[in-house]
Inverse folding.
């Protein structure tokens, strides 16, 4: 169970602040020492939402993983339908891009939006359209 100080230390750590441990006097409880200095009601709903993605984002991430696995297996099988694995990989990249946009993750937006999508489109062109 987290004490009041633990919650405050976690909040300050996530905000990039350093909170040194406080020395307590004899017979002084942690909760009594911190109750008047900290207000635990300041946890924003957006802080909680950032930790737990919504159901659409969660679905996009899982679906992206499934499509990436299916596409990879198809490419690795080296059969006459292997080229169609790039369609699954492109679908995976687009789902990852959509989930990254919903999470406002700039690094993954650039990564999935440029690198993966371009490589998958090149693979579709070279293996299927040509």
């Amino acid at each position: 169970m987290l004490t009041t100080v633990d919650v405050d230390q976690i909040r300050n750590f996530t905000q990039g602040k350093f909170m040194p441990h406080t020395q307590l006097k004899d017979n002084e409880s942690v909760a009594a020492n911190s109750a008047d200095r900290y207000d635990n009601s300041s946890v924003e709903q957006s802080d909680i939402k950032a930790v737990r993605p919504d159901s659409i984002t969660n679905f996009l991430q899982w679906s992206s993983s499934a499509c990436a696995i299916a596409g990879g297996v198809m490419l690795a099988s080296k059969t006459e339908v292997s080229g169609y694995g790039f369609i699954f990989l492109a679908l995976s990249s687009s789902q990852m891009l959509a989930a990254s946009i919903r999470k406002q993750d700039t690094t993954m937006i650039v990564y999935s939006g440029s690198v993966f999508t371009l490589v998958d489109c090149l693979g579709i062109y070279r293996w299927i359209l040509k």
